[in-house]
Each structure stands twice: as C-alpha cells, then as structure tokens.
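> call design_seq(struct)
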C-alpha cells in the first residue's frame, strides 16, 4: 500500500460523479452497532458512509416536511388457503 495506490483499490473500478459543493462537516456520536450496520449498507450499495448519512438526512427532512401522507391498504384473501395478506403503501404528497 502506498499513497498512489491505497490497499483495496482496483484500478478502473471507480465511477466519476458530478462535483458537489459539500463544505460543511459535522461530527456525530453513534452506537457502534448502528455504525456497523450503516457501513455494511454502504458496502452493499458501493457508496461511502457519508453518502448513506446524507441520504438518511434527506429522507428524514422530506418526511418531516411533508404535509399530507396518503396511505393505501389492500387486504388480499387467498381463496385456496383462506389466508389474508396485508399490503400497505404510504405516499408523501407535498402541498
């Protein structure tokens, strides 16, 4: 490992993204199990932990700022087994 080729870097495996202006940095204390789960999610999605945290923050703000939420619930009964399956979908509508 050296500065030109960090360990684990595979040449040509990256992807170029549009430049972003991210000039604010914050520090947060999180439970180690939460951090581990977030790191694993980032690994699965092939993105950085910072990307995951930014997405989570945007989703939280979108949820808090939505004024109306329309909820659809559909109950489906299987005639053969008599079992009922519940399907639910929340759709946020900005007003």
């Amino acid at each position: 490992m050296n500065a030109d080729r960090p360990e684990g870097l595979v040449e040509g495996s990256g992807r170029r993204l549009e430049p972003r202006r991210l000039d604010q940095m914050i520090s947060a204390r999180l439970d180690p199990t939460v951090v581990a789960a977030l790191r694993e999610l980032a690994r699965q999605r092939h993105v950085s932990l910072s990307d995951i945290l930014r997405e989570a923050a945007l989703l939280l703000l979108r949820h808090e700022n939505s004024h109306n939420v329309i909820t659809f619930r559909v109950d489906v009964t299987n005639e053969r087994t008599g079992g009922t399956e519940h399907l639910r979908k929340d759709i946020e509508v900005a007003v």
